[in-house]
Recover the amino acids of this structure.
């Protein structure tokens, strides 16, 4: 005959259940109390000297911070919402910034706070303004031909309108 398993008392069952629950709480504690490290970004990630970039860091848990780089002056970051879950700011890249990769360091709460570092690519050349570089690849001849066509279309439109006006007044 097979042996019967030993009977457990209700007190022993409760103790075993309490030990199992305590083990589960202790095992889950690091996961429960852990927090994600802040994440940061620079937009755009590539910019010409003299251009502007937006700076953003999420997950600081502070109401202030700063961003520093060799590409621009120190920037104080301010909360982007009431809960201060993200901090933001903007910077103008130095006009004489060296082309290449520059580190941007975000510090939560200012100096001594938690740090996050991202990269910013400074492209060679000056920042384009005005037409946004839309005529940068056109030759002077192409610009002249386009201007002549536009002037011709304007002149033809005026001629047609004047001819109509002259024709209706004589009848």
């Amino acid at each position: 005959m097979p042996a019967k398993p030993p009977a457990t008392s209700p007190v022993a069952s409760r103790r075993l259940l309490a030990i199992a629950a305590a083990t589960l709480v202790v095992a889950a504690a690091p996961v429960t109390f852990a927090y994600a490290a802040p994440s940061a970004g620079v937009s755009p990630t590539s910019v010409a000297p003299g251009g502007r970039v937006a700076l953003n860091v999420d997950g600081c848990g502070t109401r202030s911070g700063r961003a520093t780089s060799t590409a621009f002056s120190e920037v104080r970051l301010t909360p982007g919402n009431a809960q201060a879950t993200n901090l933001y700011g903007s910077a103008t890249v130095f006009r004489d910034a060296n082309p290449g990769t520059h580190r941007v360091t975000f510090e939560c709460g200012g100096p001594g706070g938690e740090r996050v570092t991202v990269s910013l690519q400074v492209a060679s050349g000056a920042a384009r303004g005005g037409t946004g570089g839309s005529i940068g690849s056109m030759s002077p001849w192409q610009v002249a031909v386009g201007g002549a066509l536009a002037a011709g279309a304007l002149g033809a439109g005026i001629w047609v309108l004047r001819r109509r006006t002259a024709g209706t007044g004589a009848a």
Notes: Confidence is low (pLDDT under 50) at residues 24-34, 130-134. The beta strands are 39-43, 46-47, 52-58, 65-69, 75-79, 86-92, 100-108, 115-122.
